[in-house]
Structures are given as C-alpha cells and as structure tokens.
Amino acid sequence: MSLNNSSNVFLDSVPSNTTRFQVNVINESHEGSGAVNDNADPPHYEETSFGEEAQNRLRISFRPGNQECYDNFLQNGETAKTDASFHAYDSHTNTYYLQTFGHNTMDAVPKIEYYRNTGSISGPKVNRPSLLEIHEQLAKNVAVAPGSADRVANGDGVPGDEQAENKEEDQGGAVKFGWVKGVLVRCMLNIWGVMLFIRLSWIVGEAGIGLGFVIIGLSVVVTTLTGISMSAICTNGVVRGGGAYYLISRSLGPEFGGSIGLIFAFANAVAVAMYVVGFAETVVDLLKESDSMMVDPTNDIRIIGTITVVILLGISVAGMEWEAKAQVILLVILLIAIANFFIGTVIPSNNEKKSRGFFNYQASIFAENFGPSFTKGEGFFSVFAIFFPAATGILAGANISGDLEDPQDAIPRGTMLAIFITTVAYLAVAICVGACVVRDATGSMNDTIISGMNCNGSAACGLGYDFSRCQHEPCQYGLMNNFQVMSMVSGFGPLITAGIFSATLSSALASLVSAPKVFQALCKDNIYKALQFFAKGYGKNNEPLRGYILTFFIAMAFILIAELNTIAPIISNFFLASYALINFSCFHASYAKSPGWRPAYGVYNMWVSLFGAVLCCAVMFIINWWAAVITYVIEFFLYIYVTYKKPDVNWGSSTQALSYVSALDNALELTTVEDHVKNFRPQCIVLTGGPMTRPALLDITHAFTKNSGLCICCEVFVGPRKLCVKEMNSGMAKKQDWLIKNKIKAFYAAVAADCFRDGVRSLLQASGLGRMKPNTLVVGYKKNWRKAPLTEIENYVGIIHDAFDFEIGVVIVRISQGFDISQVLQVQDELEKLEQERLALEATIKDNECEEGSGGIRGLFNKARKLNITKPTPKKESSINTIQSMHVGEFNQKLVEASTQFKKKQGKGTIDVWWLFDDGGLTLLIPYILTLRKKWKDCKLRIYVGGKINRIEEEKIAMASLLSKFRIKFADIHIIGDINIKPNKESWKVFEEMIEPYRLHESCKDLTTAEKLKRETPWKITDAELEAVKEKSYRQVRLNELLQEHSRAANLIVL
C-alpha cells in the first residue's frame, strides 16, 4: 500500500536525533566487473543498515552497468566523501533518490522535513514526490541528474541556500538553558516566596500542624495536577516560546489562548509590582528600626520600588544569560536562609527567645499545636486563601519555553521536581515551627512560673513560662502574633531578611521576564492586530525589548498607586484561570480522541485533568469570589472578541478535533431518524462549475439553503484523466476558500469524468453523507441550446432524466443574460497581470535611475536595494462590477450586472408562483423560504393555479384554504381558467420557427430518404411526434402568453 500522497498525520511530531538511514558499499565479486584491488574481490552489493543493528539483513544487488560510478567512491574498501561533503549512498542527503534500496527511484525515505507545518521555524517543510511526479519520471526512463532530481524529489522544498540560512540561524549563538537552570531554579524561586518566611508560621498557628498539612497538600494537589497536565501537553509536539499561552492556544485554539494569553501577560506585569512592593516594604521596615526614613512610609516604598524595577529591567535587558546568573545567586541566598532556619531550631534557646515562645523541639508543643485554633474572623478557607499564592509559580520555567534547549524534556522534569522540593520544604518548615514555638507569648522574661503558682496546663506552663494573660490581652509574640518567627528562630536573623529579599527579587525578576516573553508570542500570532508592534525581537535571543519597556511602565504604574491589596486577588485568579485552562486543555485533547494526541509523558489521566480544572475554578472562588467573577467576565469578553475577529491561524487544536467528532456523531445519529414531511428541507447540488464562474446561480440557491439546507457547488472536469485530476486537485482548496471568503455556506465538490453526464451522475449518486444527501438538483438554463453541439444538448437533457431516475427534484433557473461569466473573470485576470507588469516595470526603471544618479555611500545603499515588485491589492472575485469602465468594451457589462442581481436587496414586488401541477410542494416551498430572507422580505407571494372559468371563486376559496393549512402567507390568488385555449397565431408561428431547424419533415420525402434521416438524426422531431403532442404544445405556448401577460413585472417567477 503506497502512502505517497497521504496527509501528514504526524504533524508537530517531536524532532529527534534519529539514526540516519545509510547505504554502504561492500566488496564482493561480480561477473563482468573489474577488480578494485589486485586481489579478486567478491561482487559489490549494497548493505542497508539502521545504525548498529541489521547488519547484512538486507542485501540488494544493483545493475552491473551502474557499478563504475560507485567504484569512484571506494577508497581501500570504504566509501569516500565527495567534495560536496555528503555520502554517496546516504539516503538522507541530496542524492538519496539515486540509489534508494538499490534502484534508480524517486521514492523518499521518512524524514522529519516532510511532517513540518508550512512556515515552521524548525526548518523548511519539504514536499515528498507525488505519485504523478514519480510516474512521469519513470515514463521518461532517463538518468536523473543530481541537481534537477533534487528539485523534483523534494517537490517544493526549500533550496540549499535557505537550509544553510536556517543552519546559520541555529548556530547564531543564542543562549539556551537546560532543565536545571531554565526551569528548576526559576520554579523553586517563584514558589518559595515571602510567604515562606513571614506567613507560614502564622498559618500553622491558626490551622495547626494537621490542618496546615491539609492546606499545603490541597495547594500542592492543584499545582501537581496542573504540572502533570502541562507535562502531557509539552511532550505532545514541539514547544515554542510563549509558555502557558502557547500550550493553551495550541491545544484549545486561538479563542481560549488569545483571551488567557493577554490577561496572563498582564498578570505577570502587575506581579512585578506586587513583588517589588513586598521588597520595598521590608526595606522600609528596616529603615524604621534604624530611624532612617527618607520621606514617609508610602513615598519611601515608591522610591525604593522605582529604583528596584529600574535595576531589574537593566538585568533583563542585558540578556537572558545575565538574568539566569542573577537567579542562581538569589537561589543560593534563599537556600542559605532556609538552612539557617533549620540550624537555628537545634541551637539551644536563650531566655529572651523563650520569653518569645521558642523552646526548641518539644513534644508537648507539637501536641498542642497539632489542632486548629482559629481566631475571630478566620477559618479554614480564609487561611487557605492566604497560603495558596505561595504554591503558585509553577509556570516560571514554561514561560521562557523559547529559551530552553529541549522544552519537552525540561518543562516536565524541572517543574515536577520543583513542586516536590518546595513541598518538602514547606512541610518541614511547618513541622519545625509547630514543634518549637508556642502560639502566644508575651516576650517578657519576667513571666516565668514561680513555685507554688497555678499553671493553666499549656505547653509553656510545663516549660516554666506563664503566658496566660495573652488570653485576655493581645500579645506581640508567638506563632499567632509575630510574623518574624523564622528570624527569631534562625541561627543568624539577618540571613532570613536576605532570604526575604532573595524571594521577592527573584519572583519579580521571573515575572519581569515572563510577561514580555508571553506577550511577544501572543503578538507574533497576530491575534490582536493592534499589538503587532510588540512582536519584534532583538539580538541573538530575539529579546522582546519593546515588551520589557511596556512591562516596566505597567509595573511602575502599580508601584506608584501602591494600593495592591485590592488588585492582588484578581492577579491570583488570573494565574488560577491559566492553571484551569491548562488542565482543561489536557482533558479536552484526550476527550477529542485525536490521533495526533500522543504525549510522551504518560503519567496523566483525562478525568484527573478535568478534576484539576474544576478544582482550580473552585479555588478561585474560595480565594475571592468577586475577583473570580471579574476574571471570568474579562476572559469571556476577550473570547468573544477573538471569536468575532476569526484570526487566520490553524494550529490543529483539540477544538477542531472535537468539532469533527461531534459532527460525525451527529451525522451518525441523524441516520437513525426517519424522514418526516415537517423536517423536509431543500438540499441542493448546484451545477455551477467553479463557484466564481456562475455567482448568480449560486446566490439564488444559497438564498433558500442558507442556515436551512445543504448546498454543494459541483464541477465536472471532462478530458484526459491525468490532466483533469491534476487540475481538479490543484483548485479544490482555492474554490472552497472562495466560498468561505464570500460568506457562502456551501461545500465544493468536483469529479473527473469522460463526459459531463457521467460526472453529474456520479455526483448525484455519491454526494452527501447519510441523511445529509442532496434531494434537489439546481441547474442553469442552457441559453445557447440552439448553437451548442448535439452532445451537449443530449447531456443536458440526460442529466434531468437521471435526476428523476434517482428520485431527485430538479430546479432550472433562467435569467435573461445567462450565468456564465468565465470570460469576464479571464479579462479581469489579464488586467491584473498587466497591472503587475506595469508596476514591476516602473519599479525597475526607478531603481535604475537611482543607481545612475547616485554615488558614494548613497549609491551603495541604492545598489543594495532589492527589486520591489508591488503586489496590487487583490480584488474580491465576487465584486466583478468594480472593473474599470474603460475596459467595458471587452466584455458584456449587462452580464456583469446580471451576475450580482441576487446579491442586492430586492425591492417591493412579487414572487409569482405558477402552481399548475402538484409536484410535492417544492414549487411553493422555495419561494416561501425566499420571503424569509432579508433581501426578499419585501416581495409578496402571488399564487397562480389552473381552474374552470365557471368555478373561479370556489377554486380560489379552496386554494386559500389549502395554503392556510400549509401556513403559507400570500398576497393574492389568481385562478387561470383559459389556460387550455389555443394560443394566438403569432405565438404559434414563433414556436414553429423556433423548432423548424429540428424538424425531420419526413412526410415531404420519399420513404427511403425518410428512414435514412431517422437513423442519422434520431433526435429530430417527426411529423407524427409533433402531431401527437400538439395539444400539449398549444398549452405550453399559451402558458408563455399568460406569463407575459400576468408576470412580466414580477421579481421572480416560479413555475
């Protein structure tokens, strides 16, 4: 089974250093072959090997005639390299098509270049040779020159120069990070925030060690589930820059990705301000202690925050390498601070520390602090809401995915390990403070217990201190009251302050880098066209300097506001919304059951991911319900905006996969539903040819099928099969795109056939799917039937009979000018080509003049300028009537106007329905549907039916009753009683003149001549046939007279 023309089912596959397929030459004797060495050697065979295995597994002899050219590559029994530095028999180089599996063939071996998306930044997409190209090459039966065969074998592949450019780009010196420096360090720094040093002890005091573990565990469950989902998405294809935005947008599509990407980038920008203000507040507290205030606390925070942001911006702009070094230094300081705390817990406590509640490890303190002791206004969820932001920060590594060497390996490994290490640290700190420090302490060394005093039974009483007065008056020390417990416990207090500085600055630096990176990726995708300015990158790392400046100003604005308590819950919810969508992306991709969903990270479950998404949403409301509502409202409006704009991107999202699955399920479910007259709707095959060649025919059909029925534009290619198939395949996508561009809800289908009738017959039988099969054939009236060849007339009439045979209704549409405007389109194409040539000529002349008239440095720049051929703005193919009036003489202007007549709003008028025979109601249904459309709503229905002259009123009442039962609104009913009378002589004469060329007139000829003419022209009308249908002919001619009399002014006549 050949798969040469199959679609790329492995798009976005992970590129790996796969073993190269190589064909080596070994020495064996061959009859008629000269010896390479003096000794007799065995014949030459090709040995196909895949790496180290499969030695001698496949031996295929080549033709003796080709041996000499191979011998040129032998040196001492081994294959030599050529000047072009490629292996002569390497099937992955430019000559693999010469000898693949030992034959002169163009069949291509598997290469990653065949499976890339068009425009992929991994490298050029190369097209494998099509079957047609292979057949043509085999038919030539000539030797293939290396240069030309490369172009044929690679299809539309990129030449070697562009590949060299890509290699140069790859070797351009861009800084790439591994999983430790790029992900692990960043995630640990972001997760270990100031909460570790100034809030964890308070949380243990409020919730106790037991519930504290539950709070930490619940937070870790959220982050772990998100990390697992993110790991699954990361290992399902190539990951580019953009972090959470890239993962969500490529999984759920631009609507979700575009909405969350913008608020996620904004959240990171504001987070810079939050962390910097946290740092500035700590510095201001130190200034207060030393009585060194500059102005006042608020302005001091602004001053210190501004200076800090400027320094951080300088580090970021200097490059990712400098930023990474700064992160490593900050992590070392943070680790030293944490280690300093653990060391302090085993250093014997002094009297001052004991008075503040620190007694080293004591079982009684552990037991007392194990249960909760919530103060007034606090509870489990309020404490959880305070702690949860401390567990976030798991996206810090993913946000710089574009700067990682191997993001598919680095993000899962670094993120999951960071979650584990930080969780262990949080739990260890919680146990240590819970086992060493009591909840309340006075700080007074005089509150010791003297012999004979009563003890309240607390752990402090057992250790010689009486802190019972803290139950009646507020105290300043202990887990519940002192946020600086870790500083007190630690071996050297200033190191904890350094740890707080490190935690805040590292988080601020990570957010300052993340926001521009995510924002740049969003702008590059051009989802929000107004933000395209920020897509530009600079330097070897493509640094988003414009994004850095924007982030700087956003951070500065919020630092100057200095009211972050209100904005903080919203920012936390922005991050949680990102987590929820990452989890939902993993669930959605699994639920869609797309064959392209093949994550290498197998430790995930779609229902667990869904649970993670629901849990994230629940946590959003737990933290702050109004902030959650604001987050959802903002995301909803951005989603609506992106959906409305419909960005021109195709990322193979799971939304597309699920749409297919839903459509397939609905189509299958529809097959189980029996047809019912109430659910009948016109489902049309329209013989338009190319949809742009008969726009009026398509417009009138679309008017009564839009949003209510199926419409398929069909084209039959007649001629040699190879040429027809090639032309048909090349135009399929273009013509379907034309329908989409012109907002016509229709499909395009084409067939190649030996004759037109056979093609239409195939379409009538095979088009559609299940219940969505055509039931109506729409054709244009054959305006040139008098001049057309006999075979065309026979095919035209034949397809009408074929439709009836297949139980398909037929609608024949006629307008005075006809439908085919292919000549107009041809003229338009020629005019556009002439305009392009004119602009190109003008550009060339202008450049030549500049070169001749300029010298020195200015002339040098002019010579370096490339020829710029301006491409004129493409005109919509639907608006043909915009062609300049100076060219009107080259085509029929009336035809152009007629081709757009159904696009315009129809004025007040009538649609005349001549319902002379009961055809099942289609004659009445189509005009009724038309009156429901905006363009036809001003047209009223007039119904014409046949009847007896002496029963006109009775017939009229009966028809009105029938129409009311059908719920068809009508303006008037006309009963035609004189339809069966003979037409006037003038009309009959016109009819006879029209059919005269097609009459046989056998009565005027002798019998032999008449029989001969019947055999030669069986389609001609005999005198006997004319006489047999004379009454019917009278009625048709009379009907023409009645139409002229009653419906000449109608907007549309349905007969």
UniProtKB/TrEMBL annotation:
GO terms for molecular function: sodium:potassium:chloride symporter activity. Residues 694-1055 form the SLC12A transporter C-terminal domain. One of its GO terms (cellular component) is apical plasma membrane. The keyword Coiled coil applies. It is a multi-pass membrane protein. Gene3D superfamilies: Amino acid/polyamine transporter I (1.20.1740.10). Its main location: membrane. The keyword Lipid metabolism does not apply. Belongs to the SLC12A transporter family. This is Solute carrier family 12 member 1. It comes from Microcebus murinus (Gray mouse lemur). The gene is SLC12A1.
